[in-house]
Write a structure and sequence with these properties.
Largest sheet: 8 strands, mixed
Distance between the termini: 50 Å
CATH architecture of the largest domain: 2-Layer Sandwich
Helix content: 25-40%
CATH superfamily of the largest domain: Bira Bifunctional Protein, Domain 2
Number of strands: 16
Strand order of the largest sheet: 1-5-6-11-10-9-7-8
Strand content: 15-25%
CATH class of the largest domain: Alpha Beta
Radius of gyration: 29 Å
Structural class: alpha+beta
Number of helices: 16
Shape: elongated
Bound molecules: histidyl-adenosine monophosphate
Length: 421
């Protein structure tokens, strides 16, 4: 019979990898805590409407990539393609702003996008997502970017390239949009079908398109930075100044519009050449209109998400660093010895000593082979004869030395040696 495999684009994170994931998540939690961010856990399933209203109807994510289904015939639900919308929904639903409009929130978990799977692109992937709500100050933008870069440095990621841009606000974006529409008018035949269709709804999306002919057209298009109103211009200048204080290197990329509609003012992305085509490790930006668009008060926000699969694939931290081998392996031969081994093994575990034993009852030699394979630090050998003589052999597997110990007070003796080493 054929085995059932995982769904395409969905992948297992194996025990050999999970320790690295845990370590990286731990560092993230530390860095986030230093900046005052608190964890929020939001559902994986949301009403489809939430993503349509926040990410935008004419984005790739909403048009093509969401896992959406009609739940029992009466409500459309979607597996979250990102977390910002859910966090803002929760912020509103629980009226967090009433107590304090400033909220620093983070969440770590899986997201779902039905993209074409390839290296660094999965249909279920994980993000570390941070959102700072309630602050318009450009220092908030810099703080969030600084936090992101600090974290990436802590997990030893090198060759990072930070790109920033400003997408303007509701004041200045319409003029840019008009200029862009005028520029694209008459060039429709050079655009792909998607861009042609979106032209009237959202011409900005052409910047995001990966089709060569669209890239060629957009190369000469007007740039948003030339259209910024004085407020947005000043904000952007101050973000750059604040980044300068921390000597964070960046490049202004006026073509970076990001694939989600909720952004306004600052946007940013961190890319690396180690990732191939899917080169973005993290992306984010300011979304000053989103809280209001989702039915709340006029509260600004800024945040980012880091793609964990991509981050982990380029982090030089070795999986071996986290190998957990037993401190003690018990090899036991015969019924009496096996019984004693079973109780000693489980009692030592409760005292915090990583202990393993073999249930096979195979020869001592083969049990010791297993101790070796597991890289156990010590081995306790309970042979039939030893048990009769009320003693056991205790081997230091690293040094290759062995001593005889008494069975009375066995656990204490072992604990002293193992914890003392
Ligand atoms: P995003 O740029 O769509 O932004 O995703 C952020 C990161 O998630 C990407 O840079 C990438 O590392 C990772 N990622 C995205 N799609 C995939 C995929 N199919 N497979 C593997 N990794 C992927 C957002 O999601 C925004 N919510 C970020 C944000 C937060 N903006 C403001 N606050």
């Amino acid at each position: 019979m054929e085995i059932i495999t995982a769904v395409r684009g969905f992948k297992d994170i194996l025990p050999t990898e999970t320790a690295k994931w845990q370590y990286i998540e731990k560092i993230a939690r530390e860095v986030l805590a230093n900046f005052g961010f608190r964890e929020i856990r939001v559902p994986i399933l949301e009403k489809t409407e939430l993503f349509k209203r926040s990410i935008g109807e004419s984005t790739d994510i909403v048009e093509k990539e969401m896992y959406t289904f009609l739940d029992r015939g009466d409500e459309y639900l979607t597996l979250r393609p990102e977390a910002t919308a859910s966090i803002v929904r929760a912020y509103l639903e629980h009226a967090m702003y009433a107590q304090d409009p400033v909220a620093r929130l983070f969440t770590i978990g899986p997201m779902f996008r039905r993209e074409r799977p390839q290296r660094g692109r999965y249909r279920q992937f994980h993000q570390i997502n941070a959102e700072l709500l309630g602050l318009t100050d450009p220092r908030a933008d810099a703080e969030v970017i600084l936090m992101l870069m600090q974290f990436l440095m802590r997990v030893e990621i090198s060759d990072l390239h930070l790109m920033i841009n400003s997408l303007g606000c509701i004041e200045c974006r319409p003029a840019f949009r008009k200029a862009l529409s005028d520029f694209l008018a008459g060039k429709e035949e050079h655009l792909c079908k998607d861009c042609q269709r979106r032209l009237s709804m959202n011409p900005l999306r052409v910047f995001d398109c990966k089709t060569i002919s669209c890239i060629e057209v957009i190369d000469h298009a007007p740039q948003i930075l030339h259209f910024l109103c004085p407020g947005c211009m000043d904000h952007f200048t101050r973000v750059k100044e604040a980044l300068g204080i921390f000597a964070i290197a960046f490049e202004v990329n006026p073509k970076m519009v990001r694939g989600l509609d909720y952004y306004a003012k600052t946007t940013f992305e961190v890319v690396t050449e180690h990732l191939g085509a899917q080169n973005a490790v993290a992306g984010g930006g300011r979304y000053d209109g989103l809280v209001k668009d989702l039915g709340g008060p006029d509260i600004p926000g800024i945040g980012f998400a880091i793609g964990l699969e991509r981050l982990i694939s380029i982090s030089p931290i070795m999986d071996e660093r986290f190998l957990i081998s037993p401190q003690l392996f018990i090899a036991a031969l015969g019924d009496k010895a096996q019984k004693l081994a079973f109780s000693v093994c489980n009692r030592l575990r409760t005292t915090g000593i990583k202990t393993e034993m073999d249930y096979s009852g195979k020869s001592l030699k083969s049990q010791m082979k297993r101790a070796d394979k597991l890289s156990a630090r010590y081995a306790l050998i309970l042979g039939e004869r030893e048990i009769l003589e009320n003693k056991a052999e205790f081997r230091d597997m690293q040094k290759g030395t062995q001593e005889t110990i008494g069975l009375d007070d066995l656990e204490n003796t072992i604990t002293k040696i193992v914890k003392g080493s």
